[in-house]
Amino acid sequence: SRSYVDTAAVLTGDAGLAASIDFICADVSSLDRSEFDAAYTIHVQMNVEDKVAFYTDIANRLRRGARLAIFEVCRNGAEDAPLPLPWSIDGGDSFLVTPDDLLGAIEDVGFESVEWVDETGWIMEWFDGLGTRLAEAGTAATLPALLDDGPTRMLNFAAALSDGTLSIHRGVFTRS
């Protein structure tokens, strides 16, 4: 989403790395190259309604044997997480699926699973130490500070992870 690309640019600039990386907000199908060695998504698919089309477009831009790595939020049942969330203010652009449905969509388009891991426990440990790290860092360039209603969005996200409504999954796949 545009807001996350803009946030990435701000954080990269604040880290002094702006000359090393470019961010673009584009549909993957608009990229001309088709022989990339790898691709990764971090908290992307929850804003993508058609998972099969999305991962097909990624597969079509990777050479055979290339790797796809993902780190994505999933819902664990029918219950929705409380809004707002880091990726959605009103839910109109949130398309969460279960871990099984996400894995199935990726495998259905020709990726072979190398690894599929629930990382929710690790993320909860990260949230536990977040306040201390932010206070010690003394910087305003944080995701909660850069998003509209950012603190509420992050608190709702942490609560939904804690109560099991949401989970975070890491996967590695090979394009067949």
Question: What labels describe this entry?
Answer:
176 residues; 4 strands; globular
Short description:
By secondary structure, the chain is an alpha+beta fold. Helices cover 38% and strands 22% of the residues.
Layout: helices, strands, pairs:
Layout: H1 2-14, E1 36-42, H2 51-59, E2 62-75, H3 99-108, E3 111-118, H4 120-128, H5 130-137, H6 143-146, H7 150-162, E4 166-175
Parallel strand pairs: 1-2
Antiparallel strand pairs: 2-4, 3-4
What features would you describe in this structure?
The model has no long low-confidence stretch (mean pLDDT 90). Helix content is 38%, strand content 22%. The chain has a four-stranded mixed beta sheet with strand order 1-2-4-3, with helices on both faces. It has helices at 2-14, 51-59, 99-108, 120-128, 130-137, 143-146, 150-162, and strands spanning 36-42, 62-75, 111-118, 166-175. By secondary structure, the protein is an alpha+beta fold. The chain is built from seven helices and four strands, in the order H-E-H-E-H-E-H-H-H-H-E.
Main beta-sheet annotation: 4 strands, mixed
Average predicted confidence as pLDDT: 90
Total number of helices? 7
Evaluate the radius of gyration.
17 Å
Please tally the β strands and state the result: 4
Strand arrangement within the widest β-sheet reads 1-2-4-3
Report strand %.
15-25%
Helix-and-strand structural type: alpha+beta
H-E order: HEHEHEHHHHE
Helix content: 25-40%
Low-confidence stretches: none
Rough outline: globular
Query: What is the first-to-last residue Cα distance?
Result: 28 Å
